[in-house]
User: What shape does this take?
Amino acid sequence: MPLDISAALRLPGTEVPFDHRVDLPEQDILGETVSFPEPAIVRGTFLLSGDALIFKARLKVLARGSCARCLKPVNYEVNLPFEEAFAREDQVAGESDPWEERLTFSGNRVDLTQIVRSLAVLDLPLRFLCGKGCTGISETPAGRTDEPYNEEMSADAHPFAALQQLLTKHQEE
Assistant: This one.
């Protein structure tokens, strides 16, 4: 749901406090699914300065993923301040830089979903862990043991066996 910014349009240069909620969809991050079970909360102020709508706010949202070691559900709280500027859509329409991504608004509403999703995902850890002492999945697959494989390779199975044979033959000559 877009945020109503009409107060800033009526009073340019005046900071307007706001409290807004944004529903975030599940995200696939490097093959892992991260969900956001509750709406993200964005609190702060915004003001219109020239043709830019400037936000100074704090983002709070709960992210849920799986432990990278034992696969148990893990919660991670995103809690970060941010400052972003949105340009009027009609002001950036003529610009043609395909590599520059701009946040825009038009009319008296602004959609914060894109910036909230980006900030939340960028704040997530590379791997979710349920705790520092997590040892991972404790069950071993059938037919396997936790002991390392110690069987000696036969001389023929060794990756450098052919070179060893050539060296031995050369030394005998």
User: Anything to note?
Assistant: The beta strands are 3-4, 16-22, 27-29, 32-34, 40-49, 52-66, 73-88, 104-105, 109-110. The helical segments are 6-10, 89-92, 113-123, 161-172.
